[in-house]
Amino acid sequence: MTVVKSTLSDSARETAGEALQSTLVDLIGLSLIGKQAHWNIVGPRFRSIHLQLDELVATARTFSDTVAERSAALGLPPDGRPETIAAAYTLPGSKNGWIKDDEVVRLVAETLEAAIGRLRERIEATEKADPVTQDLLIGITAELEKQRWMFEAENWPRD
Amino acid sequence: MTVVKSTLSDSARETAGEALQSTLVDLIGLSLIGKQAHWNIVGPRFRSIHLQLDELVATARTFSDTVAERSAALGLPPDGRPETIAAAYTLPGSKNGWIKDDEVVRLVAETLEAAIGRLRERIEATEKADPVTQDLLIGITAELEKQRWMFEAENWPRD
Amino acid sequence: MTVVKSTLSDSARETAGEALQSTLVDLIGLSLIGKQAHWNIVGPRFRSIHLQLDELVATARTFSDTVAERSAALGLPPDGRPETIAAAYTLPGSKNGWIKDDEVVRLVAETLEAAIGRLRERIEATEKADPVTQDLLIGITAELEKQRWMFEAENWPRD
Amino acid sequence: MTVVKSTLSDSARETAGEALQSTLVDLIGLSLIGKQAHWNIVGPRFRSIHLQLDELVATARTFSDTVAERSAALGLPPDGRPETIAAAYTLPGSKNGWIKDDEVVRLVAETLEAAIGRLRERIEATEKADPVTQDLLIGITAELEKQRWMFEAENWPRD
Amino acid sequence: MTVVKSTLSDSARETAGEALQSTLVDLIGLSLIGKQAHWNIVGPRFRSIHLQLDELVATARTFSDTVAERSAALGLPPDGRPETIAAAYTLPGSKNGWIKDDEVVRLVAETLEAAIGRLRERIEATEKADPVTQDLLIGITAELEKQRWMFEAENWPRD
Amino acid sequence: MTVVKSTLSDSARETAGEALQSTLVDLIGLSLIGKQAHWNIVGPRFRSIHLQLDELVATARTFSDTVAERSAALGLPPDGRPETIAAAYTLPGSKNGWIKDDEVVRLVAETLEAAIGRLRERIEATEKADPVTQDLLIGITAELEKQRWMFEAENWPRD
Amino acid sequence: MTVVKSTLSDSARETAGEALQSTLVDLIGLSLIGKQAHWNIVGPRFRSIHLQLDELVATARTFSDTVAERSAALGLPPDGRPETIAAAYTLPGSKNGWIKDDEVVRLVAETLEAAIGRLRERIEATEKADPVTQDLLIGITAELEKQRWMFEAENWPRD
Amino acid sequence: MTVVKSTLSDSARETAGEALQSTLVDLIGLSLIGKQAHWNIVGPRFRSIHLQLDELVATARTFSDTVAERSAALGLPPDGRPETIAAAYTLPGSKNGWIKDDEVVRLVAETLEAAIGRLRERIEATEKADPVTQDLLIGITAELEKQRWMFEAENWPRD
Amino acid sequence: MTVVKSTLSDSARETAGEALQSTLVDLIGLSLIGKQAHWNIVGPRFRSIHLQLDELVATARTFSDTVAERSAALGLPPDGRPETIAAAYTLPGSKNGWIKDDEVVRLVAETLEAAIGRLRERIEATEKADPVTQDLLIGITAELEKQRWMFEAENWPRD
Amino acid sequence: MTVVKSTLSDSARETAGEALQSTLVDLIGLSLIGKQAHWNIVGPRFRSIHLQLDELVATARTFSDTVAERSAALGLPPDGRPETIAAAYTLPGSKNGWIKDDEVVRLVAETLEAAIGRLRERIEATEKADPVTQDLLIGITAELEKQRWMFEAENWPRD
Amino acid sequence: MTVVKSTLSDSARETAGEALQSTLVDLIGLSLIGKQAHWNIVGPRFRSIHLQLDELVATARTFSDTVAERSAALGLPPDGRPETIAAAYTLPGSKNGWIKDDEVVRLVAETLEAAIGRLRERIEATEKADPVTQDLLIGITAELEKQRWMFEAENWPRD
Amino acid sequence: MTVVKSTLSDSARETAGEALQSTLVDLIGLSLIGKQAHWNIVGPRFRSIHLQLDELVATARTFSDTVAERSAALGLPPDGRPETIAAAYTLPGSKNGWIKDDEVVRLVAETLEAAIGRLRERIEATEKADPVTQDLLIGITAELEKQRWMFEAENWPRD
């Protein structure tokens, strides 16, 4: 017996559900490695990037909540447990110990670029399946692309 | 060469650092499984517990930030990466799929009880090493014990 | 002579206008029966559902304003008069006298499910006619589906 | 068996209940036709009256909530369903399609005048039955008479 | 020599003063037993009633301040000392140790019913003596009757 | 031709109108002499009374607005012109030049006592004519009596 | 013996004092006739001008406070009593009974023009005597000239 | 070497970039001529339209920021220099000297109509190229169409 | 069967529980006699002390809530019923009727001194038993000692 | 016939008007090139200067509004149209395409220096003509000199 | 090589710089001795003056920031080091140990009088050199003269 | 005769008093040299460090107030006069004239390190004497160690 009934067909729900679950993993992962960099950054741009990373984390947290609740709204229980994130998260950017500010900027720009590439694929995949889910993914992409530009601009000139 | 110099002796720093790193893992883990339950809870108490869990998550996030920055302030880079949390987190409470409200309340009460037991040990361990770190751990314990009581009270009568 | 000129073709305007007018009726109806339940609910979950219903009413009121003003913006006078709502409103959920909390939860979940089904049809219908109207309907659907999930989750286990 | 026990005698409760139920119908009706005019007004005073009507709607919504909850507090389930409003609402002011600003001002002044006349009768009727209900009706009358004056003043010189 | 001169006749002042002093005792008592229940409640409705009781306490505290200052304004020093409350407070509702949520709801509904009955008598008693005091008592009654309804509705079905 | 139509009979309107116009004069006068004392007070209690007088002025200004708009709502144009206030204001309390703090406290207490006496008469006079106006006058009296008590209490021991 | 010692020479203080006292009279007068018009205005621009007048009154009240306290700061007790305003106020603009909106706009523009002319003279008069007082008068003039423009612009085309 | 790398193909980026740059020019132009009218409007509707124009300017400024940053996020430097706006802005609505309120309303309605027509073309043009950019343009269109309706409604009856 | 399980040993819990329960009694008593003085104070310092007492009451109320919830968190139901306070409260400071400001200041300083003395003993008593409870008592002592100093300073020169 | 009458002589008005119109052009230009740099800046100081530029733009926008309304208040219609700004703006600082952060800092410092030089001339020019206008220009100069210092300090050591 | 270039001539800059540096010393000194009195005051007016002194300190701190940044804006590094303040501060008012409230009021009034006398000289000195600096000094004088009056008024009757 | 009585023994009070007085000197000194650097910093990190220093100053000011009032609460008048700070302040960090950003970061990190070392000694010294004072010093140390880390991290790599 279904716990939360869906308003979509089974195949549409599956497509949307996969897009949402993988986005959830990316966003939670992003929030964790964003905080990791927020705490471990060193260098003359410490304060500026330290603050910028907190905005990135806030964005990732807010969107992860929306994405998970969207999944639940479609009748699919979202999975954001530590072991799931550790197993499924494939974006670059995680690094242990103090990190130089230049490297933080470069890493975050790369991570965001990878995350956006995956989101663009999910936007296409969900167009027919569920325009409501697609609209949410478009909104996330817009915000992450804006944040990526800021790290890119900060990363100039690239070595 | 040390990146961030410490104001503690090496052994005191080591003791305080271990207490802080393991507390960090517990708190990040708590924030993740708190959100997991926030999204997957079902049952007649859905709304009430759904909201209460968000307060728990907010508490866990705020304290994890304070704990990680305290570690950095002692010259020890904190580690809050997804793989670290997945590997080091040992508290109960993680569960996949929809969860009945009764079970959520019971699980969270258990998780908090375990977390508090570990914090009490760290309070003792850091008393000599660093009273500043100890004071922070005392504050976290006070708040988690308050939240545990609320889930305990909600969990009555226990089956 | 046209009072407010439209920026759409006549047929596109007609399609969008119909979608908006029927959505307006659903939303005003929803706000009225949401308040009705808010006042008449009894049972051990009184306070929790009483508050949740006010959020539903606030959502329905805000969206009904947006929908009506979108209709006006297209040059079509919206109709939200009492007699229109009474005549055109076809969703379930209206009930006289005290209502038990379980029944409120079940009724609201049903009402929202019906409302969402109709919105999904209008999203398709307006895709070619007016993407601006479609985008508004997508946003309403996202929010109502989220609220439906909450009542569904609260409605578990279903008798 | 009574659901919500009353603190009034049966006849006092009946008198107060009738006054409250008919006031509820008037206020919900007022909020709907206020919004209708808010959306459909045209003419050089559009913005000014458009905003003023939203204050009237906010007043009517707030008071309708207070009135309905007062009825519930007396043990009488209030009835604010769409079909009830459509059937019981007898004030003037409802009009379909675009409405010229002059006419809006005139119509609202008339509607308020009629509503106030009915409230004054209910103030007298409830004096003995329930001074608490009477006090609420006095407060509503004070506010509606203030709003009526503003539309009256705006309506000068009358044609 | 009078400390604060009164603007009422001696007998009117005495009538109003008695009504205010006994209301003060009821309200302070209500605030104390409301907090007592807020701290000692257990059961599945813990969080919901725990929060509702804090609104009741806030109401009782605000009104006790207004009532005491009204007494002072009439030239009569109010008496809200611990020993006075303990001696003069006669409403039900006080209970030691953990209390089950069902019992809390039932007790508070009873307490409020008793308090309202006494207030209704004072409304009559002060009508001639001092309409300003009467108006204050009417306002308190309106609010307490509203809060009583909420506990009554939550208390359904009564065993 | 009447500019703003009244909802009262002619004689009731006359009674209510007189009560409101004379209250308006008292309140505007009170706001002016309150400010006069606020600026000219000297003595060791300067700051404390200086601040208290601003609360009195704020009260008098807010109520004068409500009273004047109530008069307009009854179809009677209020008169708050400088020459009217100067001619009609008969309360004590006006004084030129620096004023010692003791004298300010004594003067304000006297002024408020006189104002309240007049308000009590108007409460009686308007009971039959217009309970809505009476209710407003009761509210003003409650607030002014509270403020009078504070100045009285501050004025102890009286010389 | 001087109550509040001045930091200016006697003649400078006299010049500044006269400028401040006459400005005080103008501003209090302006606040009173602004409110008078706010209450008595009728016509199709009622709401718009009704709100604009309240901004004028707020400006006049704030500046009258600053001007009176500046006078006190120079050791000169300001005089803002009703009888002083009535005797010394010479600006146009006072009018009894309902006033048509066109006339209100015209009257206020005239009043402000007269007030500004007098302020310009005082700016010149205080330049040598006290640049601190002059700076305050310049600030008042800037604001009143801005408000005058708004009424002038609203007054176009002039009949 | 590219300064900010794009996540789109070259042709998609060119299409989106052109749509964004021309929208930027329209919005900055709109904000400038909106302020121009805000300052130069005269006539009996001065205050009402003066305030409405500031809302239009705020909208145009906020959207111009979003549009320019979206262009940067795609790797294309936006151009909002004075000379660019002057050269590229082609919407009607610019006018020197005082402007009668009727003419302001008419001009703004025309300007918005032209701006919306161009936005509708860009919505179509960007559908394939970049749904994220399209979604932003849809949001801008929704808001400008709402504002256009308000000026249209205010412009009735058209001469 | 234990309702709320404790995380302390039985003897530690007993020690901490006694300290918390007696502190709770002191703080509720303090809040009641603080309000008593707030209402009954007379004399030239009325306003100043009247306001200061409300800050003391707010402090006492906030801390009593924290202390009671800490007791519950340790598994011990707190007791704040009127009869308990009346029986267990042993601090000085309670007084009936109007009180002269000098006496209020002296009484409150004495009451706080006694309360602090008892808190200092409980700080020692709980050091081993429960450092979390001790930390809370230290925080309360810091605040009460600050408030005591203010009344002491105000009480100078002592007669 | 004059639309808005001036309170200055013709020659004084001309002098003040020229100063205001040229200041308006400078400030609007400054707001546009400030935004241009805000969007196009790249380099390691991206975030810091990006934010600082938005404060500059906010300053320029606020002052341009004040300056334009001051001109209108003097009876002179301000001119802030795109073509006027493009033709009359002569300050340096405009640049197309991405700009390196060092260059942005240098350009803005230069632009502000030029703007301030022109303001200093207008302060002298308006001293006799209109001290009210002069006071406004002094205020703008103070703020721009502060912002110039910040860019100068950031620009050190200069190459 | 100059670090921050000035927009003034060398001699004007020197004059303005001296006025600013000596004002900076006075204001920092004032903030320190204001806090000293805030902490050490005793006597029946403790609370009232304790609070008033914090407003004085807030004023002195805000102005010292503005003055120092104005100096920097003129290209002159301000000097607010402890040793500079101790060496250059010449105003009265510093006192060790507890201070009776009467003496605090007298001392602060004297200190402010001395500070104002020095500011008046600097206003004259900077008139030609830099009207922007002069305007700032005028604003500081206005505020300090207002605060001086309040202490003077509180200081009456002087012994 | 003691002005403010202490709740500590004489020797405990002396120990706590010395710790508080020397902490007060350090914190006031820190606030002054923090502002000095805030005003005189130059270099590419100007804005970032300029803002960070203001947070340090706010921290130092808030803690200096708490420390001084704690001293007063123990019956010991705190001494924060300019001459005391200049004589007793021994931390590094004071520097005249413009300071390069790198040097500011290095100086502040050193100053904080020295201040923290002294605080750690006082934490030990006050443990027996007064745990309330110790707890305050622990809280200050936690915050200053956090701020020190931020400057340290910003100071990497150290030359």
TrEMBL record, chains A, B, C, D, E, F, G, H, I, J, K, L:
CDD domains assigned: DPS
GO molecular function: ferric iron binding
Parts of the chain that traverse the membrane: none
Domain Ferritin/DPS, chain residue ranges per copy: 18-153
Pfam families reported for this sequence: Ferritin
Classification via InterPro entries: DPS_DNA-bd (IPR002177), Ferritin-like (IPR012347), Ferritin-like_SF (IPR009078), Ferritin_DPS_dom (IPR008331)
Family: Belongs to the Dps family.
Name of the protein in question: DNA starvation/stationary phase protection protein
Organism: Streptomyces griseorubiginosus
Lineage of origin: Bacteria, Bacillati, Actinomycetota, Actinomycetes, Kitasatosporales
